[in-house]
Amino acid sequence: MSTPTVNAEKRTTETDDDPTTPATESATQAGVNGAKGAGGDSMLARASGVTLGLKQIVAGVVVLGMIAAIGILGFVVADKSDTVSTMQAEAASAATAQQRALDYATGAAEMNYQDLAAWNERLTANTSPELTAKLTEASSSMEQVIVPLQWTSTAQPIAASVKSHEGDVYVVAAFVSVMTKNAQAPDGVQSTASYTVTMDSSKDWLITDVGGIDGAVAPR
């Protein structure tokens, strides 16, 4: 009856000392799982870093694109602004040329045989030295017609337009309405006189040439 007891104790001892018991296997498995868990966390961290890096790159590309777009837009706006400014400046210069030519033509068309000095002053106003000499000579010749006919005339501006523009030089056609009275037409004759006035805007709109003076005082 004592033999079975010894065997039972032996089996119990063997079971307790066996390294392959379920307890040992559980600990080993836990270690493996722990290692796997640590590796998984490391992989997740690396994946998260890659994702953040991609997001930063995309964000950077978007920002650069926006900066480039803003730069291009600024260039276009500046270029358009410069173009508008240039057009406005050219329009202003053309308007000045037209007004100056019209003022000159109106003054040149008005004359009185009893006060030719005032007419000569208007005729040569703001003209270049060369043109002043030519106009003075021409007016002296015309006096031979003006005085005998007792010529008087008044003028009103009509319109002016730029015929050509090259650099600072403007050529303007100016038209004035002229009421002329003389010995041949004591009641007066209404007519339109045209002048071609050339000016240099870089020299304070100095008048360098005038055409139409002779026609303005031709006998009617």
Notes on the protein architecture:
The protein has 220 residues and is of the alpha+beta class. It has one domain (22-220). Helix content is 62%, strand content 24%. It is built from five helices and five strands. The protein has a five-stranded antiparallel sheet with strand order 1-2-3-4-5. A hairpin with a 2-residue loop joins strand 2 (152-166) and strand 3. It starts with a helix and ends with a helix. Mean pLDDT is 78; it is low at 1-28 and 34-38.
Brief synopsis:
The chain is α+β, with helices and mostly antiparallel strands and 220 residues long.
Provide the gyration radius in Å: 52 Å
> How many structural domains are formed by the residues?
1
- Summarize the biggest pleated sheet: 5 strands, antiparallel
Q: Could you give the order of the helices and strands? A: HHEHHEEEEH
| Strand residue percentage | 15-25%
**Gap from first CA to last CA:** 170 Å
Could you say which overall geometry the principal axes of the C-alpha atoms support?
A: rod-shaped
Spatial order of the strands forming the largest sheet = 1-2-3-4-5
Regarding quaternary structure, what we see is single chain
Structural class: alpha+beta
What is the percent of helical residues? Answer: 55-70%
